[in-house]
Amino acid sequence: MYLLLALLPAVCWGSIIFFNTKLGGDAYSQVLGTAIGALIFSILLYVFHSTPLSPLIWIVGIVSGLFWSVGQSNQLRAVQYMGVSRTVPLSTGMQLIATTLVGVILFHEWTNLVTILLGSAAILCIIVGAVFTVINDKNSAKQDKKSSMSRGIVILLLSTLGYLIYVSLLRYFNINGWAAVLPQGIGITVGTLLLTFKHDPFNKYMTRNILTGVWWGIGNLGLLLSLPHIGQATSFSLSQTGIIISTLGGIFFLGEKKSRRQMVFVIIGCCLIIAGGVMMGFTK
């Protein structure tokens, strides 16, 4: 039962960018719709599972949500340069490496030789896997594609920074995930409005993408319910499998062109990133 709940984040979060792209609109209308949907779900969740909120929880939760908006909006911007099937594996790999390094340096997670060796092997798997997902055909390495890839990677670095702070703040201040749901939802919406209002995001595509925000909230609920029962290592590992959905969804359902050679590298790359995520989970 709880293993199935732990798979919800993988299914929901792994398919968010796929749904964003399928529902249409630019990155700004997509992320604003997602944010509003997340806020609606957060309010409903708080009504049915209310938790006392201190000033610290409000401040940290809202700031955490602000940085989520930076991560999500820039991830969607990167899709416009690299496509879903490249953006998601790269983004996943960057997030895993960044959160791991913060965990080691700030939270002292790797405390013995086994975790150091396992964690180092995991990072190596993730780096190689991420490189494999962006390999071009020899005949298709044109200058404009190189330029788009470079822009996309720079945008993803900013996205990774946003996600890293979003994840790390609650842990640093030791705030329960249930307590942060509503403040984070408010921070997500406020941050997204600040980032998007100049780009006229209020259109039919924004309304459509509210569904993806609710979908994100369902994944978040699955994580909150399963974490106390199956532990962080298992739930963290399972959440990494979501990249398969978005990567292969981008190729088969969004029509992103891949040669046979690229498909082999993409699949191997996804498997390596997942393997790295699983090993990383067991170092926690």
Automatic annotation (TrEMBL):
Gene3D superfamilies per UniProt: 1.10.3730.20
Keywords for this protein: Membrane, Sugar transport, Transmembrane, Transmembrane helix, Transport
UniProt entry tagged with the keyword Membrane: yes
Keyword Cytoplasm part of the UniProt annotation: no
Gene Ontology cellular component terms for the protein in this record: endomembrane system; membrane
Topology in membrane: Multi-pass membrane protein
Protein name, per record: Glucose transporter GlcU
